[in-house]
Amino acid sequence: MPSAGSPGFDLLGTGWIDVEWADPDREPSAVGIRTALVHANEIAGLRIGPPPALSALYRVLYALTARVTGLDDAPEGPDEWCDRREEVLEKGIDPRSVDDYFTSEISERFDLFGESPFLQDPRLREECPKTAGVNKLVLGRPAGNNHAWFGHHQDASPHPVPAAEAALHLLIWLYYGPSGRCSTRTIGNTTKADVRAGPLRSTLSYHPEGPTLLHTLLAGLTPPGVEEDPLHDLCPWERETAPSALAEPTAYNGPCSRLTGGWQHALLLVPDATGQYVTDAYITWGRAIRRPSPMTLT
Fold this sequence. Notes:
Layout: E1 17-21, E2 29-31, H1 33-38, E3 43-46, H2 51-69, H3 78-91, H4 95-101, H5 104-108, H6 124-127, H7 134-137, E4 161-162, H8 163-176, E5 180-187, E6 190-195, H9 213-219, H10 255-259, E7 265-271, E8 277-285
Antiparallel strand pairs: 1-2, 1-3, 4-8, 5-6, 7-8
Helix pairs in contact: 2-8
């Protein structure tokens, strides 16, 4: 289990997103979130698989793009918003806006193994009696008594998964995780061991792609409603504290909460001593009361 002294895995600066550069003479490489945003006009596209991982990552990047460009707000209506989007397309994403957004507090929440690990719930260490295993985390690996279809893996001697790959499987579980039996989680007098399906499971996802990643990210945005206030339209990493899993679900107050909301699962990754691999994972229910699926996800 991770401790306070465990090495981190910084998703902002560490290369974990494979990209194809627009310059044909430049070799494909892995970049962090900050580089993906700042140099989006130089990147031809993402080289991410399987498809659910790409779909999930697009949604996170859409929300971040909206934040750092100011396109999370449309007080003067959609026409003026579209004009501003054209300006971003012409000039690119301002690195200063990216740095201003990623304050030290928010940056800490983009560490895969930090005190507030990215899109995970550290309370699971105390609320779950046991982990689910790294084979359960990885799409395509058999877990428990299931048959092996895509590779030979055993729960008795599981192969660690690279942290970069584990981050993608984390996103798959949040958006596409299945319903059914899960690890037991106890909060106060409530004990449950079942979970509802993720918001995008059994859905089709369409993502327009342009000649550069910047085109693609801007094409994935839609104008917010005139009455929607970005100060109340929060992504999970922007909240001071994680909401109680027993709390009544809150409303979606705009595009960013719709893009990064509706998750039913809660996860916590367990790294090795180097912080480069994940050796185990907690996977359980994240909400006792179902939050409606954000049907307007782009």
